[in-house]
Amino acid sequence: MEVSAPLIKNILLLDSEGKRVAVKYFSDDWPNLASKLAFEKSVFTKTQRISARAEAEIGMFDGYVVVYKFISDLHFYVTGGDDENELILATVLQGFFDAVAILLRSNVEKKTVLENLDLVLLCLDEIVDGGIILECDANVIAARVAMRGAEADVPLSEQTISQALATAKEHLARNWAL
Amino acid sequence: MAQLQPVGKKDDDREDDSEYSPFYGIEKGAVLQEARVFNDPQLDARRCAQVITKLLYLLNQGETFTKTEATEVFFAVTKLFQSKDIGLRRMVYLIIKEISPSADEVIIVTSSLMKDMNSKTDLYRANAIRVLCRITDGGLLGQIERYLKQAVVDKNPVVSSAALVSGFHLLQSNPDIVKRWSNEVQEAVQSKASLVQFHALALLHQIRQNDRLAVSKLVTSLTRGTVRSPLAQCLLIRYTSQVIEESSANPQSGDRPFYDYLEGCLRHKAEMVIFEAARAITELSGVTSRELTPAITVLQLFLSSSKPVMRFAAVRTLNKVAMTHPPAVMNCNIDMESLISDQNRSIATLAITTLLKTGNESSVDRLMKQITNFMLDIADEFKIVVVEAIRSLCLKFPQKYRILMNFLSNILREEGGFEYKKAIVESILILIREIPEAKESGLSHLCEFIEDCEFTYLSTQILHLLGNEGPRTADPSKYIRYIYNRVVLENATVRASAVSALAKFGAAVESLQPRILVLIRRCLYDNDDEVRDRATLYLNYLNGGGNEAHSKTFLFTSLDVPLVNLESSLLSYDASERRFDMSAVPREMKHQPMLEKKTPASKKAAKEAGQKAFANGHLTSSASDAYEKLLNSFPEFSGFGKLFKSSPLVELTEAETEYSVNAVKHIYPQYVVLQFNCTNTIKEQLLDDVSVVVDTSEAEDFIQVASRKLSSMPYGAPGQAFVAFQKTEGRLCVGKFSNILKFRVKEVDPNTGDCDDEGYEDEYQLEELEVTAADYVLKTVVTNFRGAWDAINAENEMVDEYGIGVRESLQEAVQAVITILGMQPCEGTESVSSNARSHTCLLAGQFIGGAQVLVRLQFGIDAQKQVAMKLTVRSDDPEVCAQIHEIIGSA
Description:
Chain A: This is Coatomer subunit zeta. Chain A: Belongs to the adaptor complexes small subunit family. Chain A: It is found in: Cytoplasm; Golgi apparatus membrane; Cytoplasmic vesicle, COPI-coated vesicle membrane. Chain A: It is a peripheral membrane protein. Chain A: InterPro entries: AP_mu_sigma_su, Coatomer_zeta, Longin-like_dom_sf. The complex is a heterodimer of chains A (178) and B (891). Chain A has 178 residues and is of the alpha+beta class. Chain A has a single domain, classed as Beta-Lactamase (2-Layer Sandwich), CATH 3.30.450.60. Chain A has six helices and seven strands; from the N terminus they run ββαβββαααββαα. In chain A, strand 6 and strand 7 form a beta hairpin. The longest helix of chain B is centred in the first third of the chain and has 17 residues, at 157-173. Among the domains of chain B are: 211-287, no CATH class; 613-771, Coatomer, gamma subunit, appendage domain (Immunoglobulin-like), CATH 2.60.40.1480; 775-890, TATA-Binding Protein (2-Layer Sandwich), CATH 3.30.310.10. Chain B is 52% helix and 14% strand. Chain B is α+β, with helices and mostly antiparallel strands and 891 residues long. The radius of gyration of chain B is 36 Å and the shape is globular. Chain B has 38 helices and 17 strands. In chain B, the strands form three sheets. In chain B, strands 1, 2, 3, 4, 6 and 8 form a six-stranded antiparallel β-sheet that branches. In chain B, strands 12, 13, 14, 15, 16 and 17 form a six-stranded antiparallel β-sheet that branches. In chain B, strands 5, 7, 9, 10 and 11 form a five-stranded antiparallel β-sheet that branches. Chains A and B meet through strand 2, helix 1, strand 3, helix 2 and helix 3 of A and helix 2, helix 4, helix 6, helix 8 and helix 11 of B.
């Protein structure tokens, strides 16, 4: 029996018409552009009428488990194999979703994402490496994307944590204000 | 960071372009031109980062760079290592990975990356490790191995994780190098950083995965509680269930090793760990209901979570459990019912199919009402799942056929694609076959359906069935109109099968014959050849007036020779010589080279068919018909009378042996025929004179009366040998047969196909085959058990009580008795609700000789798990009642 670590098959960020904003595939299940676009189209059409705004939603599409969450004109998806622990996929989705929100200062819409596409692509790079989950804590991801701590000679470990804490506080304060 | 400026010339369009995008009108050529700024002596870090983003945008949209373009970009990017800008450096790392330079180009950046690997800045080190390990080949790895080893145990998690994850990927291509890090990785498993612990554990397991002992040791030490990270905990649960799978239970206590650990994880604070553990428990092989209970309890809590992901995960797992342990899931039925109206349709569908699997008779009506509303707004793929679940529910509760059949016919009339309609029609066909009472209403639903059916395949299937079943109903004439309408309105294929169906009515129902003849005569003018030919042929048969029996056999039996054989006989037939003789077509499958490759598949199919038949309770009529026909074609067995029952396939050899043999037990009133299906799996051998020698020293009630050899058995072509026994009259004959396969081996040169003439005798020991009491009982479906029970004279009732000893659960005891008797459980009484102290199970069957048997089993279990059973049997034949008691008494 082959047991494996949880593997992420792909992470997709599509717009409200199903067009690509940023995508990253970690699996050879989709060998070419056509099959990737077909998968994105299939997932988008099957989910577009669902409101996945308050809580992340989930479904089985084409033999994969897909968790997804929408905000304004953006659709976030994380795909795993049909055997994957759904809650782990949801954790990765939440990590991606929140990290983007932190980096864009909660101004998450297609326009700002495109204006800051570099940050979003780096985010994808910091969350998963070759299918293996690299980090799923949004604050840590955001700090690494911003290369926070690389400027000074202060030991990074301490600085990241204090800065992460600061960001977390800021984040919390905003949520409380609502 | 780098804010992208819109491209200058597009400024004018911005006003009216509501879909404003910084990448509007972007072109590959122009961006590649822009990339020249990477070569500027005075680098503008901001501008460079923007150009990299544009390049990445193009790649992300699916644009591809040619080899030259990629090389050019790569070389230009390497210049950017001169810049000290942190943001730019991060983008450089990213684009190098995306471009994935070829091996001979990598060398350009290795020195820059190695410099970053030794940097004081941890984020540089982490990124440089990831990039270098991604693009490097084995050669360079030796040089940096020392750094990587150190990085694994670095105090900064970002560095440590980068090294561990890179190691995970490198293990595929360079296992030797990564395996040398074992000590460091083991140290990292103890890391306080959550993700580092996770990565280290994943890598450590990957390194040791082929060493079962090492994995077992790893699990033993870690399950004592040093793992804190939830993700690492999930991994550990996976590895633990693997170890459980490979080890056996403690023989004394019957406890499973590590079960306590899994159960403990159900109380973890992270939901993903709780779920992983619950799922692992439900997937343990041979899981008991006691082991299941705590896992089901946490999954039940998940069902009412506000998060769709948790509800989905739980209902999906419970759905799987319901397939094997329906009683265990019954406790969740109330929560499950509220999920039928879940906004998320995947959850609702899973909930419904779970309920259909675990539901009891009283809940069917309510459930069906809820499903009807639900069916309107789900996709076809979900509908098929529901239809299949309803079909099995109907077989479980046959007396509910009316409501379920109505439901199926209603959805048949709704919109839907071919696969969906096919699933519904097939379900109705199965119900008609299995539940006699459902036949008439099922047929009329199907008649209505073909009036407006756009699928030729389904129409012909239904017409065929109408032809076979219609004439035997109370009022056959009502079907004629439906069938003839097809002749008027449909395409040629459907018309042809409608003509065949009409002819069957004409042959079977004499009073209808004149009318049918008129109808078929009209078809003589059809514009399609096949329709006209059929009409002419049938008219001839029906008008012939001569041999009525002959025309009936012709119309109602299917071809009894393999089509391939018929085809080859027809091809070699010369029309000028004499009339074609059907009986001259060989009935045994010939060894044909083109079939060689297919045999494993066809054998598998036959086996699956056998198992399927077993799962359905008894052999499907077509399978047993085929057996009967086969056996009757041999003079040795044709005088044995009517075949009572054929068993499912029993394997007599291990998989992957030289000769593969499985057997079928054919039970006749006075005889038993053992059919041995043999396959020779050695290419270099041809087997002649193949027979099975059966020793009956442990089956003294059987006397061998005939046997049939297989004259030749070439490689890959399955063949059958038979041995027939007469049973001692007046008793239920059971016993064990030990079997030896005897044959003459001839060596064959697989290349030329030449074989030596002499050969030598050899034999091969097969496993034993047992004839048990269950072989003499046919499962029959009784829809109204109460009625059938009362219809049998109560004087023929025999009651006795038995102690069954200690059992794990009532369910297990019930299952054991059902298996011994080989009878059909009725009204869903085979499943015991959990925690029940007593249970009543109803069984129906037909005993050899034709007598109907009904059995009522009443079970009780005490605190010490001692099970007692009261067995009440009724049958028209008092002898049979006694025999059933004898079966239980001697089991």
